[in-house]
Amino acid sequence: MAVGSKPDRNLAMELVRATEAAAMAAARWMGKGDRNACDKAAVDAMRLLLASVDMDGVVVIGEGEKDEAPMLYNGERIGNGNEPRTDIAVDPIDGTRLLSLGLPNSVSVVALSERGTMFSPGPIVYMNKIAVGAAARDVVDIDAPVQDNLENIARAYGKGVEELTVVVLDRPRHRELIDQIRAAGARLKLISDGDVSASLQAATHASAVDALMGIGGSPEAVISAAAIKCLGGNIQCKLWPRDESERQRARDTGYDLNRVLNLEDLVKGDNVFFAITGVTDGELLEGVRYLGDHVSTDSLVMRSKSGTFRRIKAEHRLDKLMQYSNIPYES
Question: Which of 211, 237, 213 shows the shortest CA–CA distance to 223?
Fold first, then answer.
C-alpha cells in the first residue's frame, strides 16, 4: 500500500452522518408496506452523504450488480476521490421487511476498511456463522458440535449453559440447530430478520445475547465482522451454497467451501470503521423519532484501531437539513 494511503482519522464519525441520513429518510416509510420505497429512500440519502466523504472508496459489499434501480452496487466508487483508498460495506436498511411492516430492529449500516481488506463472497449469498463477544473470542469453533461450543462459551463467560441466550434466525433450515441448542439447555431467541443487529448484540458486553448461530446472509457476515473487530469479539463463518448450481459456481470461481473464514479473513487489518443507526426501535438502538420540527436518531460509532465505542444520540433540525439537502426528510 502506498505511503499516506492509510486512514489516519476517525472516518466512522463521518460515516455516521450517512447512516443517520438513511435512517431519517427511510423511517418515513415505516409500516407502509412498501419495501422498495424504504430501500430507495435509504439508498438515495446514504449515497448523497457518502459522496461528500474525503476518500476514494469502492463498494465491496453492496446490493449486487448495477441495474435500473437506485442502489449502492458492488464496485461502485464512493467518496470525493481523495485518499485514503478504502473498501466499503453498506446496508442502507438491514431489515427492510421489518421497516415496511413497522416491526423492531431495522437499522442502517456502513463499514469501512483499507483497500483490499474486505472479503467478497462472490456468488455465495449465505454463510453459516457463529459470533460471540470478547470473553469467548478464543473458545469457539464453527466445526465443533453445538453442545461443545455452548459449554465453552458458558465457561468463558463464567456462567452455566442454561444461562446463555443464543440468537438464531427463525428459518426451516435451522430446525436441527434449534433442537441442539435446546437439548444443550441454553435459552433461545428466534428472530425473523436482521442478523447484523443480532451479531452486534452477541458481541457487545452489555447485551442480553451471548452468541449468534446459524445461516444468514454473506454480505451481513462481512458487515458484522467489521463491527465485531471493533468490539473485540469473534465471528467464524463458512460459505453455504443453497443448491448444487451455486456450489458449482463457487468452485468455478475458486472458493473453498470447506474453509473456515475467521475474523481476519473477513476483514483484514486493524483500521476498521463502523457506524450503525436505528431506524425502528430495537434491543440495540432506538428508532428514529419525529418531534415536530426536528428528528432524533440513535447510533453507535466504532473504530478498531483505537477500540473506541461511541453512542451518539443526535437531534436534527428539519428546516436546516432541507436548506442544503435534496433528500425529502420531511413528509
Answer: 237
